[in-house]
Amino acid sequence: MSWQWGSVWPVWALALVGAIVVGVLQPSDGLVWLPIVLGGCTLTAFAIQLAGPTMPGIVGRLAAAVLGSVVILAVATAILVPLALL
After folding, report:
1. What is the residue range of 78's domain?
2. How many CB atoms lie within 10 A of CB 32?
3. Pairwise CA distance, residues 15 & 68, whole Å
């Protein structure tokens, strides 16, 4: 795997760590904090992709990073919402 596609994984890891932190620290306010985590992941994805040389495929890598973050945070939302209702 080249560095270009390897630059997608840190954004997914950030989304996972952010979801875990929100789930541990603010499980009842997850619907407020998870979009903030998504915004941070999106900005991080832009920063990582624009920090290196702009090679062909930057849009695909950026889309993969953000879409992966959305999926991770959607799963976290599906877990946190029922817990918040208890």
Report:
1. 3-84
2. 10
3. 9
Question: What is the C-alpha to C-alpha distance for residues 1 and 64, in angstroms, rounded to an integer?
Answer: 15
Residues 6+ apart with CB under 8 A from 57: 4
Query: Which of 20, 16, 30, 12 shows the shortest CA–CA distance to 86?
Result: 30
Among candidate residues 3, 1, 2, 11, the one with its CA nearest the CA of residue 62: 11
pTM above 0.85, yes or no: yes
Over the chain (86 residues), what is each successive 10-residue block's mean pLDDT?
76 96 87 94 94 82 95 94 82
Q: CB atoms < 10 A from the CB of 71, how many?
A: 12
- Residues constituting the chain: 86
User: Cβ of 35: how many Cβ atoms within 10 Å?
Assistant: 12
Total structural domains within the chain: 1
